[in-house]
Amino acid sequence: MTIQTKLPTAAAVRSSGFADPIAIRLTILDMLYRAKASHLGSSMSVVEMLVAMYGSTQVEKIRDRAPDRSRVIVSKGHCAAATYATMAHFGIIPMSLVDTYHTDHSLLAGHVSHAVHGVEHSTGALGHGINVAVGCAVGLRSRNVNDALALALVGDGEIQEGSVWEALMLASHLRLNNFIALVDNNRISSITDTDKVLDQRPLAQRFAGFGLGVREVDGHDVTAILSAIRGLTAGDRPGVVICSTIKGKGVPFAENQPIWHYRSLNDQLYAEAKAAVAAAARRA
């Protein structure tokens, strides 16, 4: 059965202020600076991916916890700042909650938690969220929910976990065409190049060999990601969108620098980062 998901147009997503990637990046910088928290690089690389994922759903159903909602699973749990900022800009959680990120007694910790309204599953131990997303796809199918998706965001380092490939094998075997994984292919795994840890290239052929439909896109192009999701949902098998991204995107001193997986912003670097993102907004 082909999923007939009604996706919004890319232009509609771009023109919606609450889903603007630059505004989300500015929110992320504020969150990380206030909390003196890390994972700047990991959060900045996934912004457009998250916008496209939530933009591919009926967000009001996620907000209302409707049983027939699409499920968005952020398996790469350490991009929590980006996840919560995106959710706030989509109106799923209040911006006032985002202001408490990574502070004492806040629900918003440094890894994604299901204690937060709208979050489907706690992640941080890598390789688990994608399995939950496959289970969600099975559950939606069993209830004959034909206009909802199970979307999983995974890191390119995370896919070195064997449990990821077990999930993909099952998704392929069950022909779960309502399941799509999006890979944040920023080519940096924690402190070094992903391929130096475990070289899995060529990724597209590996995923295709497991029976998935594959699209390769610019991971900072919301239109391209939306189009890939749209194309895969028209097929009869699960899919994966390999998103080529830049770790630390939008912050010149952090781009492609592994140390910004861990480093936090001081006053000067915060000002530089905000200025760079604001300048990008003026050029857009």
Brief synopsis:
This protein has a single domain, classed as 3-Layer(aba) Sandwich (Rossmann fold), CATH 3.40.50.970. It is 42% helix and 12% strand.
Q: Output the CATH topology.
A: Rossmann fold
Summing up helix and strand content along with how strands pair, one would put the structural category as alpha/beta
Return the average pLDDT rounded to an integer.
91
CATH class: Alpha Beta
Beta content comes to: 5-15%
Contiguous runs where pLDDT drops below 50 for at least 5 residues: 1-6, 13-18
Give a verbal description of the structure.
- The chain has a single domain (15-283), classed as Rossmann fold (3-Layer(aba) Sandwich).
- It is an alpha/beta fold.
- The chain has helices spanning 10-15, 21-35, 40-44, 47-55, 59-63, 80-89, 95-98, 129-142, 162-173, 194-197, 203-209, 222-233, 267-283; strands at 71-74, 150-155, 179-185, 188-189, 192-193, 213-218, 239-244.
- The chain contains 13 helices and seven strands.
Question: Which properties best describe this structure?
Answer:
single chain, 284 residues, alpha/beta, Rossmann fold, five-stranded parallel sheet, two-stranded antiparallel sheet, 13 helices, 42% helix, globular, disordered N terminus
